[in-house]
Amino acid sequence: MRKGEGLGNKFLANIREVDAIIHVIRCFEDENILRDEGAINPVGDKEIIETELQLKDLESIDKKLVKMEKMVKSGDAKLKEEYDVLVRAKEHLSLGKNILSMDLSKEERDLLNSNFLLTGKPILYVANVEEAAMHTGNKYSKLLEEAAQKEGAELIVMSNHIEAQIAEFDDPEERQMFMDEYQMTEPALDRLIHSTYQLLNLSTYFTAGVQEVRAWTIGKGWKAPQAAGVIHSDFEKGFIKAEVISYEDFISYKSEAACRENGKLRIEGKEYIVKDGDVMHFRFNV
């Protein structure tokens, strides 16, 4: 296979700094949509993509090792450690394996991550199926799921055709009627977003004011001052306390005032670990 055949070299270079990779793979038959490679083969398509990523990583590592060869002789222990782990990574890739499957310490993985290697990024697979298989999957998505499970990755089944139609509705009621027709409780795209957040170990909290409601993305396990810093660094520096309402309480009582009246607003300090969906108001002084 030629380099760039699956994804293209320019594209591969452009995704080096992404946090995760989502593979959307065709898992449906349609004689009106031609496929140059012949019969539908989702596992084969997956392997083509993997090979492209591995080739790009090998290219990146080779360039880095050439640059490091002279410097590593200086006796710098940290540099030697990175050099050695890159050599191991090259050997691993040469066997047709992804960096993600290497047995590494946290320090070694951090060293490799600083090189933005593509096959070291977490992966999520999306099986794009026909309408009839959107709830159950089909023979192609099941083959892809088996392949994903072998590497410990998750697979989401969805019909991109249906998702595209859902996205076109501006009216929430019409959108819901359309989903009811297809027996959908939520768009598959929402499930994909939830799975992506889990993959990246992220969560969300909300700020709700008179003018706007905003969602803020943070890492799981972050404490209140860290979460406040996402809004502005001054919020973290001068953090005093956080007024917190759980998402369930806010939805149940429908307003901050009602939550306050019913004792559902809590005051939390610097050690509070923010929970997914918390509605928060920060008090600070700088």
Helix/strand layout:
Elements: H1 9-14, E1 21-26, H2 42-71, H3 77-94, H4 106-113, E2 123-128, H5 139-150, E3 154-158, H6 160-167, H7 172-181, H8 188-199, E4 202-208, E5 213-219, H9 224-231, H10 233-237, E6 239-245, H11 247-253, H12 256-261, E7 266-268, E8 279-284
Protein model, in words:
- Helix 2 packs antiparallel against helix 3.
- By secondary structure, this protein is of the alpha/beta class.
- It has helices at residues 9-14, 42-71, 77-94, 106-113, 139-150, 160-167, 172-181, 188-199, 224-231, 233-237, 247-253, 256-261; strands at residues 21-26, 123-128, 154-158, 202-208, 213-219, 239-245, 266-268, 279-284.
- The strands form 3 sheets. The chain has a 3-stranded parallel sheet with strand order 1-2-3, sandwiched between helices. The chain has a 3-stranded antiparallel sheet with strand order 7-6-8.
- The chain is flat, with a radius of gyration of 24 Å.
- Helix content is 45%, strand content 16%.
- It has 2 domains: 1-200, Obg-related GTPase Ych/YyaF, coiled-coil domain (DNA polymerase, domain 1); 202-284, Beta-grasp domain (Ubiquitin-like (UB roll), Roll).
- A hairpin with a 4-residue loop joins strand 4 (202-208) and strand 5 (213-219).
